[in-house]
Amino acid sequence: MANLGAEAKAGYFATPPEQTELIANKLIFGEDEEGEKVNICDPCAGEGTALKQIAETLKKQGGEVTTFGIELEESRAQKAKEVLGYVIADGYEAIRMTNQALSLMYLNPPYQETRNKEREEVRFLRDLTDKRLQPGGLLIFVIPQYILGKCSGMLANRFEEISVYRFTDDFYPVFKQIVLFGYRKEKSSSGPKARRTRDWLKSIAESGPGVVPALDKEDEATYTVPVTDKEVELFRDGKVSIDEVKEVLGESNVFERMERMITPPEESEVRMKSPVMPLKLAHMGTAIAAGAVGGNMGNHIVTGTTSKVSEVHERTEETVARTEKMVTTVKVFSPEHGVVKLE
Ligand SMILES: C[S@@+](CC[C@H](N)C(=O)[O-])C[C@H]1O[C@@H](n2cnc3c(N)ncnc32)[C@H](O)[C@@H]1O
């Protein structure tokens, strides 16, 4: 039996090539009149060897295969870059990627608990199989058998035509992995059928290796990898580079708008709209008080204010009436006449 335990460092356990080969041999490249392209992704790719092996099998069947890998650990990501088409060295959580453009997702997440005591297998499944796969896209999910129960509800709601295998006798004892194949439903649904599937998956989780066939058991079953007509136009990490900022700013009119906001307007631009009728004296006073006209008029300065004035009128011996009115005051500062106040 292979000494696989030693390889499991920080959640890293590469799918043994013998097991990947058995998985890949069950796959049929789903060429149809829509085309012959498939986009396949491993969102926790390790060194990329498992996805590469799957891609090679599909290519041999005539498929035009584009591979996408995401790997958090830098040195593994660098190795994955040598064997996969597109690789990002980052956590999948930060990745921006075109939705529903994947024909296949190979998901072999870390087998451990998060700090919040959630299982990583559940977190990866929840986050990664919501939007990335196209409807009808194939998920290959590799996890320890006893964790399947925790994933069963989500798998049953999101996937259909589910089949479950396990690693072969040589490899199963170390992590007790099962390999689940399932097709992404158009829309998630939880009906009686999904509940039956969930209960079936739970019962597998609670049992031993005998309840599911090993990958090397010949059962003639095949799983189609559907073609896609959608390009993965966006496959980016979460970091924004200085060059990107420059490019975006170069195309934006933000500087022009800022300049207009902070530059004082030309005198010629500050003009009152011409009124239809000539202004009466009271209108002039109101316009000056509002600051719409006036200011420095050459050899004198004109300013205006409007303030509230209260007045008390005696009506009878017992009653008084209070009134308030707005009074507009215009002051003219002139070198010849001093301060002239107009009300
Ligand atoms: C079980 S290994 C699977 C490797 C590969 N898929 C395979 O089957 O051979 C899980 C990998 O997930 C990586 N990983 C852990 N957290 C990750 C995250 N948040 N985003 C992307 N990769 C992550 C680990 O560094 C590790 O290489």
Topology:
Blueprint: H1 17-24, E1 27-30, E2 37-42, H2 49-60, E3 64-71, H3 74-83, E4 86-89, E5 96-97, E6 102-107, H4 120-128, E7 133-144, H5 148-158, E8 159-166, H6 172-175, E9 177-184, H7 192-205, E10 223-226, E11 235-236, H8 242-251, H9 254-262, H10 281-289, E12 295-296, E13 301-314, E14 320-334, E15 338-342
Parallel strand pairs: 1-10, 2-3, 2-6, 3-4, 6-7
Antiparallel strand pairs: 5-11, 7-9, 8-9, 12-13, 13-14, 14-15
Bound molecules: S-adenosylmethionine.
Brief synopsis:
By secondary structure, this protein is of the alpha/beta class.
Question: What distinguishing features does this structure have?
Answer:
343 residues; alpha/beta; Rossmann fold; seven-stranded mixed beta sheet; four-stranded antiparallel beta sheet; elongated
Describe the structure.
This protein has helices spanning 17-24, 49-60, 74-83, 120-128, 148-158, 172-175, 192-205, 242-251, 254-262, 281-289; strands at 27-30, 37-42, 64-71, 86-89, 96-97, 102-107, 133-144, 159-166, 177-184, 223-226, 235-236, 295-296, 301-314, 320-334, 338-342. It has 343 residues and is α/β, with parallel strands linked by helices. It contains ten helices and 15 strands. The chain has two domains: 5-240, Vaccinia Virus protein VP39 (Rossmann fold, 3-Layer(aba) Sandwich), CATH 3.40.50.150; 280-342, no CATH class. It is 28% helix and 29% strand. It has a seven-stranded mixed β-sheet, with helices on both faces. A four-stranded antiparallel β-sheet has the order 12-13-14-15, covered by helices on one side. Strands 1-10 form a two-stranded parallel sheet. It binds S-adenosylmethionine.
